[in-house]
Amino acid sequence: MNRKRFSLVFLVACTVLLCGSMIPGCAGETRRTELVLLGTGGGPRPNPVRYSPSSALLIDGMPIVIDCGNGVSRQLVLAGIPLASLKYIFITHHHSDHISELGALLLLSWASGLNEPIHVFGPPPLEASIAAAFEQYRFDIETRVSDEGRPDLRLLVEVHEFNTGGVVHESELFKATAARNNHPPIEQSYAYRFDTPDRSVVFSGDTTYDKNVIALAKGADILVHEVLYTPGIESILQKVSNAAGLRKHLLASHTPVEDLGRIAREAGVKSLVLNHIVPTEIEEFDALSIESIRKEFSGEVTVGRDLDRF
Description:
The protein is built from twelve helices and 13 strands. With 310 residues, it is of the alpha/beta class. The strands form two sheets. The chain has a seven-stranded mixed β-sheet. α11 crosses α12 (285-294).
């Protein structure tokens, strides 16, 4: 081996040993926890720009899915996360854009080879929703069990329904804490905080400015927070027949971008990631949002895009 080639190999080896990867600018150790935004749009109507709300946390490669909006199964595949490897799902609340593919994700993960228990956490009516999904898929499940020798999906899914905030799961890899947020008219709506070996990540769920969410997010590395761009509401209302009711709901149940800087500052988070973006198709949204947030918050700000990784 000539001297130049030896030097290059030695440099690469040192990089891997020090960083655990060949990512430029690494901080000197392997990052054990990675955030993947699967769907960053808000609302139940499909659009060509963003999929419905869903995210994933990878802890040493083990995936946790947060919310299961339309497209979550496809987005997981595009993100390189095997469906059969899913271990945990957390649901913030039961609006359709957050659960429309919950049952389908369970079924498709099973069809992809899932053969170990999968844990699903969330507020009522989680147990009823999953039972209804199993009834819908009963023919397919029972056919594949008898014809293909698959384990019974219904016996693999463990449902953990809760109706109050607090620690909902704790293990060696992570602790999950829930806090009630403000998303009227839904009372059982929650934010989640995940504390892992190297990071803390908070998902606001759907909410207005809320002290519970701020308290939950205190000192977190990343706050993934929903956002409403109020000037863009009319672009949505023009497309629906229930404009008056929808306007009332959006303003009463979501967080205008003007509040996000204050929320991030009061929580003392390091990084703010905008998610559940409403409306989804405003060209000037990124620049105007960041400018507004910067007035109150000096940390890192990112307007989330589908399949972004942090």
